[in-house]
Amino acid sequence: MAFGKVAAASLVFGILYTIMFVYMCFMYATKRYKWKSRFTILFAHAAIRIASQACGVAFGVLLWKNLQVFIAYLILGAEGYFSLTIASYYFLRHYELSMFGKSRLGSLNPTMGTWQRSLAIWTLRPLWAPWKFVRDNCIMIVDSWLIPANAIIIAGGSLMAQAISPDANNLSQDKAAELANTAKGLRTAGQAIFLIITCVWLLFVLNATRKTVAARLPRISKLACAVFIVIGLFLLIRGIFGVLQSVVWRLSYYNDSNYDANGLSTEFVVLETVLAVMPEFVAAALLNASWWATREQPEAIRHYQDEIATAGGGTKLGGAHESNDFHGNPETKRLNV
């Protein structure tokens, strides 16, 4: 057994994600992070990515001796992307609630309970009736799209792993080719949905930036929007690569030229690491760092807006669905979403 290229790349990011995980444990232990908050989704992402990288190390050592490790590597990679995409929406929702008191992504005081919300999402109700949620609960629509997309990618990954090793699965060449085509279609559809959801998130970020500038909020708020845009660009790179990996033969797991005696080829490992794993890590790290910039933000914004009001320069913060009620809403003082 050799320590291959996949194992080396996976080990590097496994260590980085472990550092992130330990850091987040410290933040929870010191009560800087709250369990019922947006950071918990990011915490889950770090844990999933550690498991994914561990499977990558195992696959780099065992190669095709244990196909289940490769399947787990693919599935956990998809789960990591899934959790990070969801987390990005919740972080943006928190920003808008902190700055403006309202957000199309979700309200400060939701009318639906936790169980009602979960039932609606898992029955995909926002998917079939989005007009009921688009005004102040768009994040439920996003969740309802991401769940089936995630399932489709996982199914495609499982079929792909079987198609890559037909002998180990007692498959004929025709059956393996059929599975490969099915897997390609599933993964392409799932990755396309993720890419669209990422593009929609960027539109929400641009809208939040517009409102921030129009409201003349402090520089720290504009910096937060700039960071969101950078995060969006990294997620966009990840999403585009995911789609290309499903449709471009050179980037495909099905391409025999992407494998050598030590597993995946050097070129393929570099592309996978630079265009998939690294963008996710950078985005997760930036989301983590946002706590330090926003921990006292609500009070700063209230003070700033009070100064504007005193000077007679009150500004309407949003469109027709948002009102400038942030600094007068006591609920925002304990905002933790």
TrEMBL record:
The chain crosses the membrane at residues 6-29, 41-64, 70-92, 145-165, 185-206, 226-248, 268-293. Keywords: Membrane, Transmembrane, Transmembrane helix. It comes from the Eukaryota. The keyword Membrane applies. PANTHER family: INTEGRAL MEMBRANE PROTEIN, UNPLACED GENOMIC SCAFFOLD UM_SCAF_CONTIG_1.265, WHOLE GENOME SHOTGUN SEQUENCE. This is Uncharacterized protein.
